[in-house]
Amino acid sequence: METKINYEAPEYYENRELSWLKFDSRVLSEAKDKSIPLLERLKFISITSSNLDEFFMVRVASLKDMVHANYKKRDIAGMTASEQLAAVNQATRGLVEAQYNTYMRSLIPLLKKEGICILDAHEDLTEEQAQFADRYFMESVYPVLTPMAVDASRPFPLIRNKTLNIAALLANKKSKNKETVFATVQVPSVLSRLVRIPSNKGNITFILLEQIIERNIEHLFSNYKVLCAYPYRIMRNADLTIDEDETPDLLKEIQNKLKMRQWGEVIRLEVEEKMDKKLLRFLRTELKVAEEDIFHIAGPIDLTFLMKMYGIDGCDELRNTPYTPKAVPEIGQGENIFEAIRKGDIFLHHPYETFDPVVDFIRQASVDPDVLAIKQTLYRVSGNSPIISSLAQAAENGKQVTVLVELKARFDEEHNIVWAKKLEQAGCHVIYGLVGLKTHSKIALVVRREEEGIRRYVHLGTGNYNDSTAKLYTDCGIFTCKEAIGEDATAVFNMLSGYSEPRSWNELVLAPYWLRDKFLGLIRREMRYAKEGKEAHIIAKMNSLCDREIIAALYEASANGVKIDLIVRGICCLKVGIPKVSENITVRSIVGNFLEHSRIFYFTNGGDPEIYMGSADWMPRNLDRRVEIIFPLLDETLKEKALHILETELADNVKARILGADGNYEKIDKRGKTLVNSQELFCREAEEALPKPSGISRERCFIPEEQHGK
Fold first, then answer.
1. Could you point out which of 183, 214, 268, 366 has its C-alpha 20 to 30 Å from the C-alpha of 14?
2. Of 88, 116, 90, 97, nearest to 28 (Cα)?
3. Are residues 138 and 270 in the same domain?
4. Do 344 and 409 belong together in one domain?
C-alpha cells in the first residue's frame, strides 16, 4: 500500500526569512556582474543595504517580539522564532561580508581606474584637500552639529533610528585623573554624505562627511582631548502594532505610533571594525544591545549613500542608457481616453509602456463635465503626485470623489496622512478601509453619463498609483468599460466605504474572503485535468510565495502530473526537486534593471486558458489580511500579451536564476544558446512596436523538460 504523502511536512518548506536573504544575495550578485556598467553595480550594492535595513526593522524585529513574548509556535519550515533569529544572524553576516568584499576589493579599485576615488580615511587627504575639508567643516558643517556629552547631569541621548553617528571618548584637559567621558554627535542627514573635494585634473574625488567631522571633532569639545572617535549606526524595531478595534481615530493613532518608532528596541548596532573596545562596551550597555546584534563593518557604515554616486556628471559611459517608457499603441496622443477604452479593453505594461494613460485617466475625468464620480484606492503614491492633484481638482469641480487612502502602508504612513488631509480639505470623501485589514488592491472607477446612459470605466492594476515607481517597477494593468467589471468595481467601493457585501461577483475575486478558495480551486482543477490525461499547466508570476496551503496544493498538483512554472522574484518557501512531490515544478527569479512587481497567473484549463492578474502574492498576508483584487483577462488579445510576458520570462537566460534542489539559485548555462534578457526584449518591443504573438499556442507555454525539477 502506497504511503500517503503529507504535503505540509516542514522538511518540504524553506524558511521565509532565509529565503528573503537569498533574494538580497541575488541583488548583490548583480553588483558582482562584470557585464554590468560600474555605476549600475554600485546601485545594486546600495539596494542590497536598503533592503537589509527594512528587513531588520520589520522581519527581525518581529522575530524578536516573538522571542520576548515566549512565542513557541514553529514556522512552516519547523523553526522556532529563536532558531530563526540564530539562522538569520549567521546568514546576514555572510551577506554583509560578501557585500563589503565586493565594494572594497572589487568596485573601489575599478572606480579608481575610472578616475573616481572615495577616500578611505581623512588621513589620505593631500594638503590642499585637507584645507578644503577643514574650511568646509567650519563653514557648512559645524553650525549644524549638536555634540552631546554624557555625564552625571546629562543622560544618554536618544539615538535616532538609521542615523549615522560618531561616538567619542574624551578626557578633560584640566583634570589630573584619567577618567573618560563619552560623547556622541549625529552626522547631519540634511547635508550630503558624499563631499566632492579638489583633485587632479580629470579625476573625481570624494570624502565622506563623517570623516570630515572626525578630522575636526576636537572643535566640538574644546576643553577635552579626544582619545578616539568612531562612527556607528543603530536599527530600531519599526514594526507598528495597532489595535484598530480599540482605536476611535485611526489617523491619530498612527501619527502617535510613528513617533514611537524612534523609541523602538535597538535590534542592530553597526560599528566600524576597529572601534575602541571601551567605547563599544559603553555603547552596548547604554543601547542595551546583545553581543549577537553587533555588526563590525569593514568599510563605510551604511552603503545606501552609493545611490547618490549613480548620477555623478560626466560618467554616462558607466551607466545604462536611460530608458524612456513608450506610448501605449491603443491610445493616441491627445485622444480622449474614454473613447479609446470604448473601442476595447486596453493592456498596459509598465515601465516599458508609459504610466501617463493612468494619470490621464484621472486627470481627464477630473475636468470632464460628463463624469459624475471618481473612486480610487491609494496605497503608495509619489511625492508630488499628479493623481492626488487631479482627485482634489475633481472634488473642487463638484464631482463626487471617494478615495481610500491606506494609512498602514509600511514606511509610507506619514506620507499618506499628508495626502489624506489634503484630499479631505479639497472636498474628497476619504476613507481608511476595513478594520484590521490593509487595502492593497489597485482599482480606479470613473462613472460617466453618456447618451446610452451611465457607463463605468475601470482601471485595474498589479502596482501602485505611483508615477515615479512606475518607471522602475514592472507592472501590468487594464482599462475596461465592460459592464460586469464595472458592477463589481462599484460593489468593491460600497464594501470598502460601508457594510455592503455583494451576494456574488461577476468577474473580480477579492481577498480576504474569496481569493484563497479561488486559487486553490484553480490549482485543483488543473490536477483533475492531469488525472484525466489532459494537458495541465500552471504558470504563476509573483513577488513572493510563502503560503503553506497554496504550496501544499502545488505539491499535490505536481505529484499528479501538472507542470508548474513559477516566476518568483523574492521569497519562495517552496522547494523543488523533491522526489514524488515537486519534480514537475520549476522556480526562477529575475533580478534586473527594473524591479519585477507584476502578478500574473496562467491556468491551461483543459485547453481553454484562463489568465488572471492583480495585486496579491501567494502569501498569508495577501490572502487573509488584506483587501486584494484579482481580475481575469477576458479579451483574447489581452490574454496573448500576458502570456507573451510569461513565456518571455521563462525563456530568460541572462537575468533569470533557477532554484535548485539544494535550495540555491544558479544562473543558466548560456553556452550555445540565444541570449534572452526579458527586460531588454520588452524595451525593444515597446520601442519598435513589434507585433505580439497571435493565438495562444499550447506548445509555446512549455519550457525544456531538463529544466523541470532542477
1. 268
2. 97
3. yes
4. yes
Residue range of the domain that includes 613 = 510-707
Residue 327 domain-assigned?
A: no
Confidence band of 703 (pLDDT split at 50, 70, 90): very low
Other C-beta atoms lying within 10 Å of the C-beta of residue 547:
24
In the chain, the amino acid numbered 478 is: I
* Number of domains the chain contains: 4
pLDDT reported for residue 240: 54
Dihedral (CA of 52, 57, 58, 60) sign: positive
Is residue 53 situated within a structural domain? Answer: yes
Q: Could you tell me if residue 252 is inside a domain?
A: yes
User: Widest CA span of the chain, in angstroms?
Assistant: 94
Q: What is the pLDDT of residue 694?
A: 45
SS3 label, residue 270: strand
The torsion angle over the Cα atoms of residues 229, 230, 231 and 233, rounded to 10 degrees, is -110
Contacts 24+ apart (CB under 8 A), 2-8: 5/555, 5/556, 5/559, 5/580, 5/581, 7/551, 7/552, 7/553, 7/555, 7/556, 7/559, 7/581, 8/76, 8/548, 8/552
Identify whether residues 544 and 613 lie together within a single domain. Answer: yes
With residues binned 3-state (H G I as helix, E B as strand, rest as coil), the percentages for the chain, rounded to 5, are 40, 20, 35
311-365 pLDDT, tens digit per residue, is 898 899 999 999 999 999 999 988 999 999 999 999 999 999 999 999 999 999 9
514 with 503, same domain: the answer is no
Q: What are the tens digits of pLDDT across the range 289-309?
A: 999 999 999 999 999 999 999
Our answer to whether residue 349 is catalytic in this structure is no
The one catalytic residue among 440, 537, 644, 708: 440
Query: Mean pLDDT, the chain, as a whole number?
Result: 90
Q: Which three cell numbers stand for residue 262?
A: 524612534
CA distance 183 to 230: 11
197-206 mean pLDDT: 90
For residues 158 and 66, state if they share a domain. no
Q: What is the pTM of this model?
A: 0.91
